[in-house]
Amino acid sequence: MKLGDLPIVSTVFEAGADDRVFDSLLLLGPLVIGLVIVLNRSLVTETLAIVYLGVFVTYVLYRGIR
């Protein structure tokens, strides 16, 4: 079984613009939110959320410029 065989993942991969990094970032977003909910708000979860947002925004800007 490959990652693309999972129902939700395959839908995102099929709808995307064949950009695995962007698709992966979209799939990681809900997981980051879930971790913040499960682990409560702390320095670790805030840092994780900030890093995620930073990577996401940087990648989107990079792809927009390129």
Outline the fold blueprint.
Elements: H1 7-15, H2 20-39, H3 43-65
Helix pairs in contact: 2-3
User: What integer is the average pLDDT?
Assistant: 83
Principal-axes shape call: flat
Strand content of the residues, in percent? under 5%
Q: What structural class do helix, strand and pairing data support?
A: mainly alpha
SSE string, helices as H and strands as E: HHH
Distance between the termini: 34 Å
As a percent range, the share of helical residues equals over 70%
Tally of separate domains: 1
Cα-based radius of gyration, to the nearest Å: 14 Å
Q: Based on DSSP secondary structure assignment, what is the total number of beta strands? A: 0
Number of alpha- plus pi-helical segments: 3
In the predicted model, the low-confidence regions spanning at least 5 consecutive residues are none
Structural description of this entry:
There is one protein chain. The protein is built from 3 helices and no strands. The protein has 66 residues and is mostly helical. The chain has one domain (3-65). Helix 2 packs antiparallel against helix 3 (43-65). The protein is flat, with a radius of gyration of 14 Å.
